[in-house]
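Below is one such record:
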Amino acid sequence: MFATLSCKAQIIPIEQQLTYTGDIPDGAYVKDVNGLLNDYVGTWATTQNGDRYEFQIVKVTKNYLNTTWDKLYMRYKIFNISTGKVLVDVTSETDDSPFVVRGAYLASTGTHYVLNYIGHNNDCGQNGHVFIEVVGSSKNQMNIFLSVTGDVSPNCTSPVTTQILPIQKMLLTKQ
């Protein structure tokens, strides 16, 4: 009986991830036990400065270094409305693609979620953290913005790149 109890995975609510005391133990499951990530799941869109921004967010369960995590993954497409020219489209990328924006953590307050972002011109500074926050009582609007890390690698052969994701807060509507 003792062996059965000691092998049971420890469940850590996702909102306690940042305030968890000590290291998260091997075999633990950082789980969305209260369904807080569900509000973010879906397709979100807006139009700004002649461009259409569409974001698809899904909830996934992934294993990493002997720990199971509930996370959000975000794919996006940005195109010019008048010309139809696609500026970037990562909607068909697989989960292991570096261009899929991957969840990092839910703020301990539960008010926003942070994802790690790498753009197609990562070597020249197209990278950072994407902050998303569902707003309004109907939960059909979401704020999004990129906090640019701007790390530039020695492989960068051109000036620092223009950011493709919004660096100013942008309001999206659930589709």
Summary: Residues 2-7 form the longest helix (6 residues).
